[in-house]
Each structure stands twice: as structure tokens, then as C-alpha cells.
Amino acid sequence: MRKIRVNLGRDSYDVLIGVGLLSLVGLFLKEKGYADKAVVITDPNVKSRYGEVLERSLDKNGFNVTTLVVPAGEDQKSLDNAVQLYEQLTDAYAERSTPIVALGGGVIGDLAGFVAATYLRGVPFVQLPTTLLAQVDSSVGGKVAVDHGRLKNKIGAFYQPKLVIADIAALKTLLAAELANGLAEVIKTAAIRSKELFAYLEQNIEKMKAFNADTLEEIVYQCVRIKAEIVEKDERDTGLRNILNYGHTIGHAIESVSEFRIKHGEAVAVGMVVAARISNRMGLLSYSEVDRLITLVEKAGLPARIPDLDTSAILKAMRHDKKVESGQVRFVLLKEIGDVIVSDEVSPVLIAEVLAV
Question: What percent of the chain has pLDDT over 90?
């Protein structure tokens, strides 16, 4: 087992990474001083695979477990579902000391985290991410939210978990498309911060796609390490942390316009390539670096080109992005693999031209 400490003063926490950790969750929570009750929030698919293992671990360590099940899918990340969960937590007599345990991917983590941040003004929150995307990105950093009006993560908060437990064994049950979905965030992390990690991905992409446990553990560890360093310097996303949005400005717009039929990783992959091409057009990034990114994206099983969507609708959706400031859309742009800048000087005309490529 490997451990990374996210140092945020009173809100510091550990991220545990390894194989077979779900069976030890009860012990880990007991060691942190939790007792009596625990509420697990999950979806039906994840519950059928891991619910019994988790409940057994919690029960063995003295917890009275309540499991709340939310239907799978991005459209479940809503205020309506949050309200239903508040009512179920009340019925279960959840208290301010009762940990809410999110078992699942990014949707469950975001929704459960939002509920934990707002129920009784905040209860303990534990992340058990079961997808690659959630393990390398959404489970770390304390961003929790629900979607609203077809806009992703429109209503949310910063609320750090008390513990994150990433069981690499859970990744073996992912479909190839879900693994690729997570690889988009892995590529993003390397592209913005580590040319060494990017080269490692180029050399080991086939091992990752074959679910090699050692390789997956290494990339989860490296991605979490990088994200922790960034979050420690900018917890509230007012400066450096903006670079984690590489590929997301276009990506979130694509998700919104497609009504979330296009997966997050697929949308971010296209967004990264679009941002790289914009970087090239602005004289920041070489053609060879653009080609490296496109090659890795495609080898990961991800799209590199804009899907068949209305470009004007994408441009309109971008203006609703959380990163818009004074009416200007902020883009994370590559200077080279491993080095980025944040710019609000990308013209709508240039964006439209690159989207049409």
C-alpha cells in the first residue's frame, strides 16, 4: 500500500493506494476514530460488485451500516437526488459524526460529497473511488457539486474528504471504454505537469489498457501526487489549480451540448487536442508536441476530433463555464508537454476555426 498526504492544515488527509483495500475500509475508519454508524452512498452497479465486501468490513469493525442507492448516470447528479438523500439520512438518524462513504465513480463522489458538505452543515466524508477517473482526479481535492440546468457542476462547494481509499483491484472490472475515460485525466495530468509521466504513459499505454495492476498503481500514485501538490498550493482554485482544467473548457461544453451522452473522458480528450491546436496557432506549442498528444490520446482509445455537434452551441455553452471571468473564457494552453499557461486572450474566432478542423 502507498500513501500520499494532502497537506491542508486542519483539513489534511491521506490518500491510500493499493490492491485489496476495500476489505480494510472498516479498520481504516475505526483507526481514525469513527464508530457506531456509517452511511454508504453508491449506485446499483457498484453495489452489486463491492457492496457486500464494504458492508462486511464495516460491520466487522462495529459499524451499523446504512446503504443508500442512487441510479447510475450523470443525470442523477442533481439537487432532487440530494434532497432525497437528505431525507434518507434523516430517516437513518445520521448524526454530525456519522461518516458518509462514497463508493463509486465521479458522479457518486460528487453527489455524496455535496450532500456531506451540506447535511447538518457538514458531516465526515470518505471517498472510495472505483473508476480510474475518480481515483486519479475527482476523489482528490475537495470539489463537490451537482449539475443544474444542463450545466455541469454548477452548484457545489469545496469540502475535503477525511480519507480517500483507492483500491486498484476495482479497476479490473471496468469496461475498456471506462478505463479510457479515466486515461483522459491521466494524460491531462502528465501534459500539464510532468514530461516524465507523459513519457511513461507513451511507453506503458498497452499495459494500462491490459489492466496491469503494477502499472495502474504507479499512474494512480503519480497523478494523485501531482494533484496533491497543486491543491496544497491553491485549495480554492484561484490561481495555480486552474491548470487542472486543461481540456475541460471545451470538454464541459461538449458534455453539456451532447446532454451528457458523450463521456467526460472523451470530451476532455477532444478538449485537450483543441487546446493544443489553439496553443500551436498562437505560437506556443510545436507541431511535434501536438502530434505526441494526439497519438497518445488515440492509443488510449479516446477521440481526438470534435464529435458531430453544433459548433455555435459549444461556443455558447463555454460562456456559462465557471472559468469565465469578466466575460472572457480562460483557456489552459500548452507551452510544451509538462508546462502550461492560463490565458484569457483566445479569440472566439480562433476557437471556432479550431473546432471546425
Answer: 83
Look-up of cell digits 495555480: 240
The closest alpha carbon to 200, from 223, 219, 220, belongs to: 219
Looking at residue 24, what DSSP letter applies?
Answer: G
Q: Which of 239, 241, 260, 233 is nearest to 317 (CA)?
A: 260
Q: What angle do CA 93, 99, 105 make, to 5 degrees?
A: 115
The full set of domains in the chain, from first to last, is 2-173 (3.40.50.1970), 177-355 (1.20.1090.10)
Contact 126, 104 (CB under 8 A): no
Report how far residue 38's alpha carbon sits from residue 59's, in angstroms, rounded to the nearest whole number. Answer: 10
Average pLDDT rounded to a whole number, residues 174-183: 94
Residue with the three cell numbers 451500516 = 65
pTM over 0.85: yes
For the cut 70, the answer to whether the pLDDT of residue 322 exceeds it is no
* CB-based contact 163:28 (threshold 8 Å): yes
Mean pLDDT computed over 37-65: 97
**DSSP for 170-193?**
GGGGS-HHHHHHHHHHHHHHHHHH
Q: How many CB atoms lie within 10 A of CB 118?
A: 16
CB 187 within 8 A of CB 300: yes
CA 158 to chain CA centroid, Å, is 14
C-alpha cell, 56: 462486511
Residue 4 has pLDDT above 90, yes or no: yes
pLDDT digits (tens, 9 = 90+) for 79-138: 999 999 999 999 999 999 999 999 999 999 999 999 999 999 999 999 999 999 999 999
Backbone angles phi, psi at 195, to 5 degrees: -65, -25
Q: What's the CA gap between 186 and 202, in Å, rounded?
A: 12
